[in-house]
Design goal:
about 625 residues; single chain; 23 helices; alpha+beta; binds thymidine-5'-triphosphate; Alpha-Beta Plaits; MutS, DNA mismatch repair protein, domain I; DNA polymerase, domain 1; globular; 5-stranded antiparallel beta sheet; disordered C terminus; 16 strands; about 15% strand
């Protein structure tokens, strides 16, 4: 259920940037002959030409829709180009699209706090950048406004085509505007500059919404697509919401929205204005009631999180119709493949970004034989995540068996699985400064090898045998003996001790003399991690698999995340929530910064050495003139 967040005192400038038909654009960049052509990206599937997951605006002009399959799209638009999503391990491989998304994020993050919301969506908090522009180089001459900014759609302004650009230029420079509108105007100019840069540097177009909060920015970013931006001045919020159907709001797409329609007769967000806060609280509880009362007035305090990396990694596959899995051996075969990919992804996240995932969750869709319409769901299951492919495979299979056991309720009946996915979540940063130490300890030969197997295990790769693995203090990773397993409390205490003893032994064995300060640093970092894990409730006193809160939280995340697990055959990455970067600028060692991935490096270097003043007077090419206009 949505919760109202306290609002900030000062007006903010928030943008939501959404790439246009993203996978199509990535494919068009790979094959420029597709540019300007009706094109769709198709999910790997041999049934009726595969499912469309992204459709170019040219193809949309012919009536092609995402809900269609390839064969139907060909009927509607015989000239359409259908591009298959790359395939690896018998399923969609989204790495190409993911890294294209990262290129864009690296550019957008240069102007303010940036939250990667999905594979192709970003929120930006441009408040500081807008304030700075207002102080240093406020827009004061309509003729000097960047063309792309002058093409903004500003809610509440007359949209007469012949006069529109002139009106927008005048609005962006109004000397008598209040400070909120002035900031918004600067935000619109900054977003236009960023969109032009994204196009020039990546060849991708995007659309954006600019408003005083995340909710409004998101609601309008798709209003004028492709390659356009929409601005929401405070004065037009009420009119905009008055006609906005409740179901258009992300959080109202499900049961809550249906209840508003059925129980209160509310069809648009504006209709909510006729209910008092007390009435809404009475109906939906204190938090949700207040949240509804506020959104009716366009109020939302939700912050843009400072996060450029995904909040979880997920790999999934669907098995429709006759492809459903009906025995443990086939489930194991697929789970092994999904886990192998997941393992590679978390390993590369660790190597590149120094982040560790803590929780493994398994989701499945299952039906019992002869009970296809049963509403009972397969319970998602979670356990602490152990690094190393075979461990993840082993744990995922145990999670599956445990879930199936609960699902079948002791009935001896057949079943069939129509979807399987594994997710690594609760990802957090290794404290700053430890990355160079990790590299030192692992040695250059292990750069792409598993870095933190559990302390009790035999390394999977014999070539790693001589390496020392620096792992955060992590009780779950030390496997207890059988007798210890019977006593949860004892398990925690003993294993923690064993872990640190093993750790100390290995570290002292491998570090050259004179490295005591590094050891001290390491133990400090580990205890910080330990404390964090403890406070996150992840150090469990009971061994084994836990179904639990964790799983339902993971499910909530999955449900709410835009773009993670979007496709039916996918490998999604969810943006992270609570684990923001924990750097203190003064504490950053420049040597460590050099080791970070480029986009993060750029951001941190930006803090240390602020970027040059924006040249707001510069005039640039318009985005629509960059490529020939779409044919429809
Ligand atoms: P969207 O942003 O929903 O759509 P889009 O970028 O293709 O088009 P638009 O211009 O209307 O925003 O999704 C981003 C990408 O995510 C999309 O290009 C393909 C992928 N995707 C799936 O794989 N499956 C899905 O069901 C959806 C909705 C998207």
């Amino acid at each position: 259920m949505p919760v109202a967040r306290p609002e900030p005192q000062e007006p903010r400038v928030i943008a939501h940037v959404d790439m246009d038909c993203f996978y199509v654009q990535v494919e068009q960049r790979r094959n420029p002959a597709l540019r300007g052509q009706p094109t769709a990206v198709v999910q790997y599937n041999d049934w009726k030409g595969g499912g469309l997951i992204a459709v170019s605006y040219e193809a949309r002009g012919f009536g092609v829709k995402r809900s269609m399959r390839g064969d139907e799209a060909k009927r509607v638009c015989p000239g359409i180009n259908l591009v298959q999503v790359p395939v690896a391990r018998g399923k969609a491989d989204l790495n190409l699209y993911r890294s294209a998304g990262s290129e864009v994020v690296a550019i957008l993050a240069s102007k303010g706090k940036c939250e990667r919301a999905s594979i192709d969506e970003v929120y930006l908090d441009l408040t500081d950048a807008a304030k700075e522009m207002l102080l240093q180089a406020p827009p004061d001459s309509p003729e000097e406004i960047l063309i792309e900014a002058a093409k903004s759609n500003i809610l509440g302004l007359p949209s007469d085509a012949s006069e529109k650009e002139k009106i927008v230029r005048a609005w962006l420079c109004r000397p008598d505007a209040d400070s909120e509108d002035k900031l918004l105007a600067c935000g619109a100019i900054i977003v236009a500059q960023l969109r032009v840069r994204v196009l020039e540097e990546t060849q991708f177009t995007c659309s954006a919404g600019i408003a005083h909060n995340k909710m409004l920015a998101k609601l309008v970013s798709g209003m004028h697509k492709p390659a356009q931006q929409t601005v929401v001045p405070s004065s037009s919020v009420q009119d905009f919401l008055a006609s906005l159907p409740v179901k258009k709001m992300k959080q109202l797409g499900g049961k809550l929205g249906s209840s508003l329609q059925d129980d209160l007769g509310v069809e648009t967000i504006g209709d909510l204005l006729s209910f008092t806060e007390e009435k809404l609280q009475e109906q939906y509880g204190v938090n949700t009631g207040t949240w509804l009362w506020k959104i009716a007035r366009g109020i939302s305090g939700e912050e843009v999180e400072d996060r450029l990396l995904p909040k979880s990694h997920g790999c999934g596959k669907t098995f429709p119709g006759p492809k459903a899995l009906k025995n443990s051996a086939s489930v194991k075969g697929w789970l092994d493949q999904l886990c192998e990919e997941l393992s590679e992804r978390i390993q590369s996240d660790l190597n590149q970004n120094k982040r560790i995932a803590q929780t493994l969750t398994l989701h499945a869709r299952v039906s019992k034989e002869n009970e296809r319409d049963s509403v009972k769901k397969f319970p998602s299951k979670s356990c602490p995540l152990r690094y190393g492919t075979w461990k993840i495979q082993e744990d995922a299979m145990k999670l599956f068996e445990s879930g199936l056991h609960d699902f079948l309720e002791y009935q001896n009946t057949g079943w069939s699985i129509t979807s399987l996915s594994v997710t690594a979540s609760k990802i957090f940063d290794i404290p700053s400064g430890t990355s160079s130490i990790l590299r030192y300890v692992k040695g250059p030969s292990s750069a792409s090898s598993p870095a933190i197997p559990d302390s009790s295990s035999v390394p999977e790769d014999p070539s790693l045998d001589n390496n020392v693995y620096v792992t955060p203090s992590n009780e779950e990773q030390c496997e207890p003996s059988t007798s210890e397993k019977e006593d949860g409390k004892k398990y925690s205490a003993i294993s923690a001790k064993q872990c640190s003893a093993n750790e100390a032994k290995r570290i002292s064995k491998k570090f050259p003399e004179g490295t005591s300060s590094i050891l001290k640093f390491l133990s400090r970092g580990q205890s910080a991690l330990h404390e964090k894990r403890k406070s996150d409730g992840l150090i469990c006193s009971h061994p084994g698999l836990e179904s639990s809160l964790e799983a339902s939280r993971a499910e909530e995340h999955n449900a709410s995340a835009q773009g993670a697990d979007r496709s039916s055959t996918n490998c999604g990455a969810e943006p992270s929530g609570s684990n923001a970067w924990m750097f203190n600028v003064e504490d950053i060692d420049p040597a460590v910064v050099e080791e970070l991935p480029p986009e993060i490096r750029r951001e941190i270097q930006g803090w240390i050495r602020p970027p040059k003043q924006p040249n707001t007077k510069r005039r640039g090419s318009t985005i629509s003139s960059y490529f020939p206009p779409a044919r429809s």
